Amino acid sequence: MPREVPLLRNEVIFVVGAIIFSYCAFLYNPHGTLKVPTQLNRTYDYIVVGAGTAGCVLASRLSEHNSKSVLILESGDEEQKLYYSHIPASAGRLMHSKLAWRQRSVVQKHCCDASVDQQVVYVRGNVLGGGGVLDLMVYDRGHPEDYEQWAAMDNVGWSYEDVARYFVKAESFDIKTPADSDSYGQKGLIHVSEGQPTLIGKAILEAAKSLGYKEPQDPRGGNGVSGFRFPRHMIHNGVRQSTVKTYLRPVLKRKNLHVVAETHVTKIDFDKKRDRDGRLRTTGVTFQWKNGRIYHALAAREVILAAGALSTPYILMQSGLGEKAHLQEQNIEVKEDLPVLGQNLIDHPTTVLFYSVENLDYRNHASHGFFDWLKNLYFYYVHGSGPLTTSPILLSGFFRSGFDPDSERPDLQLLVTADTSIVDPKIIQNLNDEVAEEMEFVGNSRNILAIIVSQLHAKSTGSVKIKHQQQHNEHDHHQKWTSEVDPNFYDDDNDVKVQARGLRIAINIMESEPMKKFNPKLLEKPMTGCKQGLKFMTDQYLECIARKRSFPSRHQSGTCRMGVDAQISVVDPKLRVHGISGLRIADASVFPSDVSANSNMPTIMMAEKAADLMKETDQ
């Protein structure tokens, strides 16, 4: 018994120390906190709407010359007010935090019977840095075929050869790979590092190889290889590489850059008269600050929307741009008829399988246990080491379903994680109580793996629309309207078959010979709505659970698609809104078709190229 006293004392000292170090970390910031301008300019050269992944890049690049003034507006608060926002392993915690905004879709017609009210939930970043503060930090450019498809749609300047230099400009590869060459950036602001191998990860990798899948070596995914690899992450020295961290915060002291958080842009402003070419001329923006006051800022050169694929079309509709009939239904004065604005919503529908495994050598220490969390905070802040320095993603894989034999690019992505909080059945998947109870094991064990299956090129597309709210605070203008998001998952029956093929690939790998030493057990009970009339775990059963249990991946794009024809696109290849002068869009909403990757890095590429396009116009 006497031996236990010093042990207890040491534990108390250890915990107190961890709390102190956590508090110090909360206060520490190498670039200082955001200082609200004491007085805003009446006019700026550029106004950027949205300080998410793209907006932070734009604000940094456009303010590089001190003669150009830039105002960037963001609805969310500062990310660093949550002390763990930069810790890679805390992705799950962040998705459940005040930095995340949960938006429900409209009722789904073709899927999601297992979701509450048959609606899916979009977990969005309401914070400086946007979704890049919450995401899983997986680095991928997409497949070259993605961008060749853009160019084939008459989008001159957007082939893979055209965009590759902007990936290179943005990234700093900390990895030596067999394919290493000038194709990978070494001097960019986004550092890319390799995930730490684990025993379970190595076993799954070997299991995939035993079934004929290979380990892709090229991060560009250009060789058509299907298989798992240890992921590349946007992490540097144990710190998340969001664009607010890498692009915006280092330049906050620029006198020509004003950053205003906790503000809502209510509309884009236009001149009453059109220019000599018959185009509307953008004059600035109207926004409501957190103090409730309405402000008007003028743009001498351009307004750039970078609010994301869900918010950018909504702001444009508020401003009178969009499909004429839809705006008239909502009693919005039509300034410019853009028939497809808000259409073509692209996403990667996602379904999860859970496995229990023995001898799991990885646990997500950010999600299990208060004392685990404190202990690892100590190692993180004092030694710069420990499990908090890594992403929750253990393996990343791209696979071909075989349903499109003419294409080399993958149509399925599989991610492996031991952090079930990032796919929580209720908070993230929005599953109803009955189905969630069938998955009550999730979160109650430290020996569970989640296999996340996402479809990369679904044929079904959705929409974003605007709707007038009957009851709203008349003094709070941004509450007058709301957006209605409809992903329209599985409108095309082929999408369900592709998704089921992805689930089957995951099952085959997990149940192969190399995995037997981990004794994996699929934690899948006969599901309500699928168990009647369908044999358990057949292909038809997998189609059923995919249709009932899918949810968004947070890779939305396409709602302001790029093209040359104003009848089927919203912006031209220089990202200028059709029929409008002085207004561009520079975020994932302009993607004319989806990319074979997590969308964060392609969005950074898009913003880098957009900044150059604006600088060229300025010359």
A few lines on this structure:
Strands 1, 2, 11, 12, 13, 14, 24 and 25 form an 8-stranded mixed beta sheet that branches.
**Sheet with the most strands?**
8 strands, mixed
Count of alpha/pi helices: 14
CATH topology of one domain: FAD/NAD(P)-binding domain
Structural class: alpha/beta
Mean pLDDT: 89
Instruction: Report the principal-axis shape.
Output: globular
**What is the assigned CATH homologous superfamily of one domain?**
FAD/NAD(P)-binding domain
User: What's the architecture of one domain in CATH terms?
Assistant: 3-Layer(bba) Sandwich
Number of strands: 25
Give the amount of beta strand, in percent. 15-25%
The unreliable regions are 1-7
Ends distance: 79 Å
Radius of gyration: 24 Å
Fraction of residues in helix: 25-40%
* CATH class category name of one domain: Alpha Beta
Protein architecture, described:
With 619 residues, the chain is α/β, with parallel strands linked by helices. It has a domain at 43-80 and 244-346 and 466-474 and 557-618: FAD/NAD(P)-binding domain. It is built from 14 helices and 25 strands. It has helices at 4-27, 53-62, 91-95, 144-152, 160-170, 199-210, 243-248, 311-318, 324-329, 370-383, 433-437, 493-510, 539-549, 600-618; strands spanning 43-49, 70-73, 100-104, 121-125, 171-173, 190-194, 227-229, 232-233, 235-236, 239-240, 257-260, 263-270, 280-289, 294-305, 321-322, 336-337, 350-356, 393-399, 412-417, 448-455, 463-468, 481-486, 521-522, 580-581, 583-585. It is globular. The model is unreliable at 1-7 (pLDDT under 50).
